[in-house]
Amino acid sequence: MLETSEIQANKEKIIIVLRETGRKEIESLVTYLESSDFFMAPASTKYHGAYPGGLAEHSIHVWYLLQHKNGYYRLDLSTDNIAIVALLHDVCKINFYGREIKNVLKGKKKIMKNKKVDGVWKEVEEEINDWQEEEAIVVNDQNPLGHGEKSVITLLRFIQLTDLEISMIRWHMGGYVPKDEYRDLSNAVDMYPAIIALHTADLESAHLLKIGGKEA
Fold this sequence. Notes:
Layout: H1 4-20, H2 26-35, H3 54-72, H4 79-88, E1 97-117, E2 120-139, H5 148-156, H6 163-170, H7 182-191, H8 194-207
Antiparallel strand pairs: 1-2
Helix pairs in contact: 1-4, 3-4, 3-8, 4-6
């Protein structure tokens, strides 16, 4: 979980970095992000960042990681490229999650039950499933347009993107796309190998940072 101060710090960091790109109409995008749930939304239902502010936190982690990969692999991405694709690759998750009460299996519990044993009624201990009501994060997509492509569509309503940025955001899920899209993915990676760097930064942020990795 994140403290309110951490959520606010992540919000301020993202806005500063986006403004530093100097992109035309960037203020309209910042206004949109502030008016949406981007800075308070979770990053997933139960996996990485499944708590308020998780989406923005995840985006910052990807931004840090992509900077390192850019230098190590000499990808020649500009600071603007990195800011745009890393911080905004998951804007498709704006207004994407909701909450509802669900029955969650917590394991087993023991209860005492009256049972007839050898013709005699006795109190017998019995083990049953322990179901409990909990508030859970659920998908409630208000604009179902896909994933990477939805992020691209959303961003193009506010700012211009380069072909490189469009491809990186569109294909940032890597092989986690339908099989009939593999050929297009392969062609895109041939044209823009940095797609792999964004994809792996996304995976590393989701699966490694949460178990003790460091962002810088």
